[in-house]
Input
Amino acid sequence: MTDHDKLLSIDDLHNVLDAVCDAAEKWYYIGLALGLRPPTLNQITADNSECIDRLQKMLSRWLQNGQSTTWQSIIQALCSQTVGQRKIAEKIACFEGLTLPAVPQPALKDVSQQTDSAEKFSTSVPSCSFMSTVKECLPQKRRASSAASMVSNNRPTLAGPCLFPHDLQWNKCDIRAPEKMSSPIDAVVHRDTAYFRAYRSRNIYSYNLTSGWSVSADCLVRDTSLVVLPVAYEGADHFHLHTIGGIKPEEHRKSPGDEFTNAIYYYQLTDCAGLLRSSSNHLKFNTKQSQITTVRSDECPIIAPELWKSSSNYPKLKTKRSQVTTVLSDECLIVAGGKNDLGPVNTVEVLTIRSTCQDKKWREVSSLPYPVYRASGCVCNGILYILGGKVVNKEGDFVPTRNACVATVSHLVKSPTDDHFFRKIENLKFKTSACITFDNHVLAIGGYDKATDQPTKLVYVYHTGEDVWKELKGQLSEPRCSSFAAAFEDKQIMIVGGYDRPERICTGSVEFAIIP
Output
């Protein structure tokens, strides 16, 4: 092996960072060119706010775990079409005595396409002229922290794949919810069924893509959150619908201050006994066959309250609270925020769901940056998103917020409680938007537009690399805020209820966006 082919190690991080720091805004694409996977780069994006810090973390990962960690690999990455930093590559090649890759000579018919591609990725932050001058005299050594201080004031630009691949087409259906629904506490999807829970209600509404609506008459507590969890029986997983936290009925309170609960209740989804009649007629809509049929009241099942039982498979929360944000990932169950008798809380608890019953224990981890309740929560590419909700303002009133923050799920699972892994990202465009994960993207649908004092039809997607929300093509059929959203595995998005005008008139209308 020649000196030119010598592998770089983590001990060379300072020199490598010094050589490529002028390309910090292209760190994501450099990482892809060096062979790092998008989930790894997405975690780095969530954990670091500045491009120079992301570049340093990415290079550390590559030097420790990457393949072909040589200067030649760095030169090839810088010269790749998506990075386009050939001048920096030339300086490294000159100093290291290496050769540059040949400049590709595209056919004439492809020139216009390549020009468009270059313009598409030309939104980089101008480099600091002083840094460029210093780079002329490679290999001058300087601390990475100095480079960070020079770049830190620049806003991070395009740093990762962020184009949503679909144009959403919303279709308002004749189907309506059993009741007018608004002020969502939670919405959860299991297979082809969505479950919805509204504020101040003990009912749980479920919608199956084939069979239509059903209603749980009484799930023992109100203002509780929903999650579908696996329960092992005879070596196989069965799935139960669980409620987490909430407010007890008055008849179950032992004392005047015994209002909130940390209990977890479940209903076995395969149970068919104890069905009651619905109070009104409604419609069901089969989205797979595009059929709408009237359903008589005695065909809309309501689950009897006696079928709800206290869970023996999952322990109680450490903190009693209601209106929590519940998120289920591959690794754990996360409960964040909520409200108790003292107001909103910022407590976050994590439970490893695959452990044995004896080992299942809730663990308090890094707190949210602000107390919040009734927020939307989701996991996308290993990142936990806590979006919107309600907070306390300076006057002591509970008001909707556009706040948004993120954390890496793996850090919450493995790290000590005193670590602070949540960080704020750009605020939502509108308050009371319905937020979901869909096709590896985070969407914010509808919401209240303060500028017009009206609900909106707009849909936004979060761009991880740029830390911005960008408007999508395809608006809702009607403006709405405080609505429910559910994303199904077969690429369908369902929007239910909410308020459809400034006078806060509640609606039971439903819209679907179906992706071919």
Observations:
- Residues 3-151 form one domain.
- The first strand starts at residue 170 and ends at 176.
